[in-house]
Amino acid sequence: MQSYKTKTTYNHTSSGPGPSYTAKSRYEQTDQHQPKGPVRKTLTSDSTQNLWCRDTYWQYIVDSLGFNPFKETNGCHLRSCNHNAEDCRGAHTLESVKPLPHIVKFNKLDKAKFDWVKLYNCVKQTLTQDIPKVHSKEHLEYLGKLSSMNFIELIQLWRNMACYYNKLAKELPERKHVEGSINKHSSGFTFNDEVPKFRVSDGLEDTAWAFERLTRWCPTQIKFNKDIRENKKVTVWDLCLATGINCKEGIHTISEMICIDNFLTGKCTCLSVQDLEVKECQLQQELIELSTKLVEIVDKESKPVKASSSDDIDDEGLAEFAEMSEWTKPKSKRNDKKKQIDPKIQIRSEITRVEKQIEQLVNSRSIHYTELGMVPFNEQYTQFQERVSAELAEKAAAASSAPAESKESWDHGLIENAKIDKPVVKVSKLGNKKK
Ligand SMILES: [Zn+2]
Ligand SMILES: [Zn+2]
Ligand SMILES: [Zn+2]
User: Fold this and answer.
1) What confidence category does residue 16 fall into, taking pLDDT thresholds of 50, 70 and 90?
2) Range picked from 68-77, 129-138, 381-390 for highest mean pLDDT
C-alpha cells in the first residue's frame, strides 16, 4: 500500500506486552487496524468475535498491567471462560478481535485519494436539510453554527444528532400501527417518521461513522484509565469490550486517534517521527548505561571472592559475597554503607521506569493522515471552492455571451442546471436512502 522511508512500521493496534528494542522506526504511519490471523466464526452462533470475551479480557488486563485492579462485588465476579477460544462469542486474544465490516472498509480506504470534501459536503447537507424537523432550541442553536465549524466539529455534531434522533425514533410508535389519538412525546414528535434521521447520502454513511469515532475517546475507556491511574478498584463491568478497533463510542488509545490539527491543516504540535526516534534513542542509551552500571556493581561485589566458581553465582549469592566483603572494610565505612539501599535494586527499578517510558513513547503518537499522503482537509476544501467558483464563473460567462437570457444564478450554490419549470426533487429524499 503506502511506501515508507524505513522498513518497519508501527502497527496502531499492536499493544503487546513490552516493546521490542529495535533501532528501526516504528513511528511511521499506518492506519491498518487489521488483526492478524484468520477470521473466526464461532460454532455456537454466527457472532464473529467483534468484542472481547469478558471472562478472558479481565485476565488480559491483569497480565498487561502487572497487577490486579479488579474487585469482586455482587454480580461482578472474576470468572474464567469455560468455552474454548473458537467457540466463545467473544475473542480470547487481542489479535482475534475482528473489526466490523464498515471499519474494515474504512481502514482499507486510501486516505490520500479519498474525497474528504465530498464526505464533508454530504454530512453538512444532511445536517442542513434536517434542520426544519428539529424542535429542540439547544439543537437548533448548534445547527445554526454549521458554517463556522471545521470538519471535525461538524462531523462530531452530526454524530451526536444522529445518535440522539435515531434513539428517539426507536422510542416512538410507527404511524401505521397507531389507531385513534395519541399524545405527543415530550420531544415534540408523535410518530417515528417525523424524526430527522441525519442519514449521510452517497453511500458515505458507514465512512462517516468509521471516521468520526477516530476523533473522540471512548468514555468508558477514559473512566477506566482514570480509575487505574488513581489506584481505584474496578469491576469487570467497567470494561469496554469493543477495544479501539470496534468501539462505536471512540478510540481506546491515543495511537488510534486522528491528529485533528494535522487532518485539518497539516500542522500540529505532536512530536515528529524523527523526534520520537531521537527520544527513544536517548532512552535506549539510558538503558544501556544503567545495565552497564548494574553489571559493574555486580562485578565489583564479586571481586573479593576470586577463587569461587563465579559463573554459577546468582544475584543472591553475589549480594551475600558483597556483604562478606563489607566486613573486611574499616568499621566506620561499614556502618554507613549498611544503611543504604542496595544500589542494584535502585538501578533495576530505574531500568523498569525507562522501559515503561519507551513503551509509552511508542504508543504516544496519533494518526497523521498527511503522512499517508493526504492533502490537509482545509487545503482540499479551498481547492474545491476555487474549482466551484471557476466553474460558475465560466457558466456565467457562457450565459452572458449567449444571446437571450443571462442567468446570474451563482449565488445559489453548486453547479445545478437551473431548470425551474420542472418540479425540484426534494433533497430530503436523498438523505433517507437505506444503508
Ligand atoms: Zn470466552
Ligand atoms: Zn469503548
Ligand atoms: Zn499531530
Assistant:
1) very low
2) 381-390
Distance 288 CA to ligand 3 centre (A): 30
Joined grid coordinates for residue 277: 526516534
How far apart (Å, rounded) are the C-alpha atoms in residues 163 and 68? 35
Q: Cα of 264 to ligand 2 centre, how many Å? A: 25
Q: Which of 252, 270, 253, 249 is nearest to 261 (CA)?
A: 270
SS3 258: strand
CA of 87 to the centre of ligand 1 (A): 8
Q: What is the whole-number distance in angstroms between the Cα of residue 118 and the centre of ligand 3?
A: 23
- Distance (Å, whole) CA 222 – CA 251: 10
Question: What pTM value is reported for the model?
Answer: 0.71
Q: Which ligand is nearest to the CA of 376?
A: 3
Q: Residue 29 — pLDDT band, cuts 50, 70, 90? A: low
Q: Are 57 and 15 in contact (CB under 8 A)?
A: no
217: CA distance to ligand 2 center in Å? 8
C-alpha torsion 282→288→289→292, nearest 10: 180
Instruction: State residue 47's pLDDT score.
Output: 54
Q: What is the pLDDT of residues 300-339, one digit of tens each?
A: 888 765 544 445 545 554 555 455 444 445 555 555 555 6
Residues 6+ apart with CB under 8 A from 161: 127, 130, 139, 142, 143, 196, 198
135 secondary structure, DSSP code = -
Which ligand has an atom closest to residue 365 CA?
3
Shortest CA distance to 93 belongs to which of 31, 18, 37?
Answer: 37
Evaluate if residue 254 carries a pLDDT over 70.
Answer: yes
Q: How far is the CA of 319 from the centre of ligand 2 (A)?
A: 48
Beta pairing partners, 76: 73
Q: How far, in Å, is the centroid of ligand 2 from the Cα of 94? A: 14
For the residues of 117-161, what is the DSSP string, one character each?
Answer: HHHHHHHHHHHHHHGGG---HHHHHHHTTGGGS-HHHHHHHHHHH
Cell numbers representing residue 54 in the block:
469478558
Exposure of 209 by Cβ count < 10 A (0-12 exposed, 13-18 middle, 19+ buried)? buried
Q: What is the mean pLDDT of the chain?
A: 80
Q: Which ligand is nearest to the CA of 239?
A: 2
